[in-house]
Design goal:
Mean pLDDT: 76
Helix content: 55-70%
Strand content: under 5%
Structural class: mainly alpha
Number of helices: 5
Number of strands: 0
Largest sheet: none
Low-confidence stretches: none
Distance between the termini: 17 Å
Shape: rod-shaped
Length: about 180
């Protein structure tokens, strides 16, 4: 096997591996969303056990319809993670994670409670981002991570095709040089 053939083969294997990895990554994200839709009852139960008591103890005094003094209402949040509440969930997660909520002077959660709630919200935000868009006319912003991955795969495929064309021309030139030398 010549050096050029070996090089072509290694590039082809690399390109195939990259495309395969991309396909596995995309499939894994959609399977995660599908698995999430299968366990809605368990999901709602975990909300009732982890997040709702946390909200009741630490958030509802300022963030409910009864008071309405704060900008965010956590009494409207539930386990469904509707598209209209995604930004609110993100804001709640950030405030709880960095410790700015609940504010000083009010009962503070333990580090374990805080970590459980932040982890629960983060996991469910990820699931909400990859679930299929609703078919009732609502428009969702496409998942940019997935779009970036697809763009990278397309660019890799195009670069591979261009490399093949260059290598083919180089091989032809090499053969012509051999033919001129009489080999």
């Amino acid at each position: 096997m010549t050096f050029t053939n070996c090089r072509l083969r290694s590039r082809a294997v690399f390109a195939l591996a990259a495309i395969s990895f991309g396909g596995v990554a995309v499939t894994a994200r959609y399977l995660q969303a599908q698995a999430a839709s299968d366990s809605e009852k368990a999901h709602a139960a975990s909300f009732e056990q982890i997040v709702k008591p946390f909200f009741t103890r630490h958030c509802m005094t300022c963030h409910s319809s009864d008071v309405g003094t704060a900008g965010i209402r956590v009494d409207q949040l539930d386990a469904k993670f509707e598209d209209r509440h995604i930004q609110t969930w993100q804001a709640v997660r950030e405030r709880v994670r960095n410790g700015s909520m609940p504010p000083r002077g009010l009962p503070r959660p333990t580090a374990e409670e805080r970590d459980r709630v932040v982890e629960w919200i983060g996991r469910n935000l990820e699931i909400a981002r990859v679930r299929p868009a609703p078919k009732n006319g609502l428009v969702r912003r496409p998942n940019m991570d997935l779009g970036d991955q697809m763009t990278n795969l397309i660019l890799a495929q195009r670069a591979y095709q261009l490399n093949l064309a260059v290598v083919d021309r180089a091989r032809e030139s090499y053969q012509q040089a051999l033919n001129i030398n009489g080999r």
